[in-house]
Structure formats: C-alpha cells, structure tokens
Amino acid sequence: VKSLSGRELAEQIRAATAESAARLSAAGRPPRLAIVTATADESSAAYVRSLTRAAAKAGIDCRVTDLVPREEIAKTLSALSGDPLVHGIILQTPLPGGARLAEAIDPAKDVDGASPASLGRLMTGEPGFAPATAEAVVRLLGHHDVALRGTRVVVVGRSAIVGKPVTHLLLDRDATVTVCHSRTRDLASVTSSADVLVVAAGRAGLIGVDHVAPGATVVDVGTNVLADGSLVGDVAPEVAAVAGALSPVPGGVGPVTTAVLLRHVVEAAGSAPAFGNSGGAR
Ligand code: NAP
Questions:
Q1: Residue whose CA lies nearest to ligand 1 atom number 36
Q2: Helix 132-143 crosses helix 253-270 at what angle (to 10 degrees)?
Q3: pTM attached to this predicted model
Q4: What's the gap in Å between 78 CA and the centre of ligand 1?
Q5: 164 lines ligand 1 (CB under 6 A)
Q6: 6 ligand 1 Cβ < 6 A
Q7: What is the pLDDT of residues 229-257, one digit of tens each?
Q8: In this predicted structure, what is the pLDDT of residue 274?
Q9: Cβ(222) to ligand 1 under 6 A?
Q10: What per-residue string of b and e applies to 172-200 under the rule 16 or more CB within 10 Å gives b?
Q11: Which of 51, 91, 178, 208 has the most neighbouring CB atoms within 10 Å?
C-alpha cells in the first residue's frame, strides 16, 4: 500500500510560510496568531502547545488567552478581531455552541474557517478561509497526485469543521461525493463503492477491510487516543492489505493541517484588508 504521508507537504508549506513570515516581519508587520481556549482538557492543551511550537518555528507570534469564561468569549473574540496587531484568531474547540461563538471572529482573521460566515463563503465561492483540516485533506490528495475529477468519493462524517467543508472542497474539484454519518444504513456498502474514501468520524477501527474496495485511496482524518496513550486513526490497520493508498496516523493529515493553518495566518497578515481563499481555489 502506498503511504499518503503528509510530512513532506507540511514541510513545503511550512518553508513557504516561514519565508512569507520573515518578509512580513521585515516590513514591520510580524504575523500574529491569537488562540482562545475555554476548557481545560489535556488533549486541547497538547494541541495548543504543539501549534504554538510550530508557529514559533515558522516565525509567527502566537498569543494564547487561556480559559476564557463562556460569557466573555464573544467579547474576547471581538476585541481580537479589532486588534490590528492580530491577524489570525482560533477559538479552541470542542466547545458546545462553538460555531455560534466563532461568529464574533472577523472572517478576515478566521484562519480555521470556523464561523458561520466563513462556511457560507466557502459554499458560495467568496474569498475566505476553509477549515484547515478540510483543506489539508484536499491538498494531501493533490500532493500525491490522486485524481478527483469525476471520481466517486465517500466522506464519513458530517461535522461543520471537517466532514461538510471537505465535502464541499471535493465537489469543487469535480468529484462525485457521498456523505455518511452515524445513521447511515449499511455503511460498508456505501464506503466500499468509493474510489477515494475520506474518514473523519473519531471512532478507532470504524473502517475495516469490508469497508474498502481493493485498490481504493483512503484518507484517515480521525485521531483517537487509546487507553495506552497511543494515537490511532479511524481506519483499522488491516485495511493496508486492501487499499491502494492510505494516509498514516500520525503523520498524514495532521501535520498538513497545522501547516495550512499557519499558512492562513501569513495570508491574513499579508493581504489585509482583503484576504486569501486558498481553500476554495481550484
Ligand atoms: P465530530 O464533530 O465528532 O463528528 C464526527 C462525525 O462522524 C459525525 O458526523 C458523526 O455522525 C460521524 N460518525 C460518528 N460515528 C460514526 C459511525 N459509527 N458511523 C458513521 N459515522 C459516524 O468530529 P470532527 O470534529 O468532525 O472530527 C472527526 C475526527 O477527526 C476526530 O477523530 C478528530 O479528532 C479528527 N480531527 C483530526 C484533525 C487533524 O488535523 N488530523 C483535525 C480535526 C479533527 P453524526 O453526525 O450522525 O453524529
């Protein structure tokens, strides 16, 4: 099975981002990312730490506002939206009502495409940022020369931050897309019809050999931490024996997501008040 590693692509994006960040800093406009957290869970804290490290490596200043009380989140996001020194804003989720709260993020600074306005722009082709994970999936496929036009793609998962936006990006690339979810009847019969299967359910081992057509391309977006602390995707290891190509977890979509997110920050810093639409562009 071919490994759809994201490491090389992430490095390419990161190098280009670091170059842009250095140019912006030299021009007196150092790119800055603001991260707002509201909950104290360890996996979210670990993600924020790794994002902060990656930002520093790319020359992007990262400011974390931790544990904002729920009733102050909108106010905090509005203040950051109005701060000319801040170019990108992330509200750390999961958070009940997260998309609603993200409404307070200026779309020009919504580098993870989380707000209803950004999602609307994605659907209508207006300039804006796509959710980084969704964009990462499509970029990863492009990097490995996986054709999408006219192909049958099945997406498992319909969240506003991964499943739905990736469905839209794939449609934009002329794939024929079917979306599955927890109420889908006979999941295997649908997924096994896919040329390209994108799995973002957050259920370790959900996709087994019976779910995958021989030779199909499988992108595993899932990240699940097992009891022993190891990180696995949604696709069972045995699938490697039937798939034609498979993205690893870790080392597949994850590193590309981080790189895309930081790329969005320099795009936001470089093009204000207009902003990029690297997600929607074909
Ligand atoms: P989410 O909001 O929990 O959505 C999960 C989706 O999967 C839902 O639409 C759900 O269906 C569907 N689903 C759950 N169990 C299913 C089953 N047994 N059969 C079919 N569909 C099922 O999660 P998310 O935020 O989209 O994230 C999905 C996964 O991607 C998670 O593991 C997350 O950690 C990972 N992730 C990875 C990255 C990265 O950079 N690699 C970034 C973001 C997220 P219903 O709608 O019917 O409930």
A1: 222
A2: 110
A3: 0.95
A4: 29
A5: no
A6: no
A7: 899 999 999 999 999 999 999 999 999 99
A8: 40
A9: yes
A10: bbebebbbbeeebeebeebbbebbbbbbb
A11: 91
252 touches ligand 1 (CB under 6 Å): no
How many CA atoms, within 13 angstroms, populate the side-chain half-sphere of residue 18?
Answer: 11
Mind listing the pLDDT tens digit for each residue in 44-86?
888 899 999 999 999 999 999 998 898 999 999 999 999 999 9
CA angle 212, 172, 11 (to 5 degrees): 75
Q: What is the pLDDT of residues 100-129, one digit of tens each?
A: 899 999 999 999 999 999 999 999 999 999
Specify the pLDDT at position 99: 73
